[in-house]
Structure formats: structure tokens, C-alpha cells
Amino acid sequence: MRRAIREGARPVSAIIVLGIIAALVGGYILDQQRLRFPWEGKPFVLKAEFSTAQAVTPGQGQTVRVSGVRIGDISKVELKDGRAIISMDVDPKYKKLVHRDATALMRPKTGLKDIFIELKPGSKSEPVVKENFIIPLANTLPDVNPDEILSSLDTDTRDYLSLLVNGAGQGLEKRGKDLQEVFRRFEPTHRDLARVTEKVALRRKNLRRLIHSLNELNGELASKGKELTQVVGASSEVFGAFASEQTNVSRAVAALPGTLKETTKALGKVQTLADVLGPAVTTLRPAVRKLDTANKALIPLAKEGTPLLRDQIRPFVRTARPLVRSLRPAAANLAKVTPDLTSSFKVLNSLFNLLGHNPNGREGPGAANRDEGYLYWIAWLQHNGSSVFSASDANGTFRPVTLAGTCGTLKQTADAEPPLGMLLAPALLDPSVCDF
Fold it and tell me: Which domain holds residue 131?
């Protein structure tokens, strides 16, 4: 057994290697034939409308390209409302490449009509298309056969074109490389011309609209001749007024630098205010954010206070208005007197402060050497006065007074002071007291 295995190992290994090579070659061939393997994922289906699908054969390796790079294959062709609908299977990694303004051009690789679709993804400003989106007929162009071009020419033109082609063939005999070099050098110019042509095509609609608008504008202007005359006349007067104010305009222009300088200073101060106001506003943000909560909390107070304001305070204010109006003159006079009253009260306040001043107080340090104020001595004087005038009768308290003197002196005093003479009259008229 082992000997048989040993002898057959080499042929078996060769068969295995050949099987692996065959599998790799087969996988490569299938990949080149656009066969999708299960692990590649589901393709993104995109459709396009064409006026004709001539020479388009799905499943024959006809591709979809962007700038010469393959992004998918042509998978299906169907007829709908007289138009050819070509389905394209785009690789999943390119599904976000195509936009709504994309264009599709059917082009042949060779003269054998090996067709592929040249796709321009569109501008990024437009949204990305979704699956099964159909590029409209206005954004597609089919392949044009040379016989279609020739059939549109008359007989003479075809003869002249034949002579031209034959002459070009004779002139370019054995100089194909030179012509190829010319085309190669012409490629940048051709690219720039293509860009210009594309921009002109984009502007065609705008130019058509502009020309239409200018036509309408010219029509309206033609129908408004009188108004235009008035406008021109008014404009002439306005420009004449501007011309007459040339001196003032020059002065304004001369003062403009100073004005701009002051404006710059003011803006600088405003910037300082903004720098200070910014932190303040930031600090006030919490309070402002809580205003809604505070307003909601005030709603019960407002509901409770509204009847009070309406039924009590407002009638009281209406009733008090006549009294307030009558108090206005008195208030005006009081306002005039108020400065004098203020001065008087200041003087009285100083007097009361002087009367009540007591430096050392009744108690505490220095009480033994205290200097009593005027209120103390006034009370003391009243107390002593009461003790002095302690005698009283029905007319009140009085103090007995003793007068001493000779009868002549008392008589002279009584004659000089009649009120005092009435008091001294009993003693002067008594013979036992004074004997004149």
C-alpha cells in the first residue's frame, strides 16, 4: 500500500497542481467576462433613456465608464414608449458617484461597434441618485453611424467629401504617425474647447431667458416714451443740482477724513463697550433663562392681585383724584417753603443737640468729672424754683418779699413806679409807720 502511494504520489501531485492552475485560469476568464461572484455584493442598478439602442448587446462585456475607468456593465435593454431603456449594473463602491444631473453618451471602442457608455457623474451640488434612477433622454446621446451622416448630405456634397477624403489619404500617405502626433498635441486644446463648449451649453438657457427679458424690457420702454422723457428730464435736473452743489460736495469730501477718524474712535469705544458687555451678558444668562420660571410663579399672584387692583385700588385712585388736584396748590406752596423749613429745623436740631449734650454721661468712666448738659440745669432750676416759691394762695404759688427803706426813699420809689406805689400805699398812708 505504501509502495503504491509512493509510486503514484508524483502523478497525483501533478494532477492537483493542474487542477489549481485550471481553477485560477477559469476564475480569471470569468472575471474578465464580467461574471459577478457571490462575495462581490449586489450591484447598484442605474438606468438611462436613449432614442436608440443600436449595437447594444447585454452580456457581451459592454461596460459603463467614467473618464475611461470602468464602473459597471450594461445588463439589460428594454423598449418603453418608443424609447430604449438601458439598465447598467454599477459596482457598489461607485453608487454614491452619480448625481441627478448626470449625462450618458453611447460610444464605440472600434469600428466594429463595440459599444460602451461614457457616463459623466454630474455636479456635486445636485443630490445623489437612488437605485433604478433613470437618466432622462435630454441628458443622453446615442452613437451616430457614418452612413447616417452621409445620408443627410446631397449628391454633390458626398462627391466633394469623397474627393476630400481621397486627397487627405494621398496627402497623409505614410505620415500616419505625424497625424497621430498632431492629434496628441491638440489634446490640451481640445480639452479646453470642450470645457468652453460645455459652459456655453449651460449658459444657452440663461442667454435665451436674457434675450427674452430684454425683448420684454424694450417693449415696455417703447410703450413708456412719455414717462422716459420725464425721467430723463428729472435726471437732468438732479444732475444739475449736483453740479451747482459742487462746492458743498467738495467740503463734504474734505470733511470726510475727519469724520471717518471720529467714526473709527467711536467704533473703538464701542468695541470696548462690547468687551465689557459680553461678560455682563454672559453673567445675566442664568437670570434670563429663569425668567420663564419666575413668570410662571407670578401667575398665581397676578390672578389674585387682579381683582384687588380692579375692585379696590382703582376705585380708590379715582376717588382720590379730586383731593390730589386740590392738594396741588398747597404742595406747590409747601415746596417753596420747604428750603426755609429745612434751615429752621437744622437750627432747632442744633439747639436741641446743644441742650441735650452730655459729654461724660450719667454713668461709666469719667462720671465723677461729668459736665451736665443744659437739660439737667433747667430741671434743677425748675426744682429749686418750686422750693423757693413754695407759699401759695387761691391765685397760685408766690414768694414773700420784704422791702426795707426809709419812708422818704419808699415814697420816692412809689412816685417813680406807680404799680409799686399801689403796693406801698398802705404802709405809707399808715401814721403809725410813716409820719410825714
Answer: 41-152
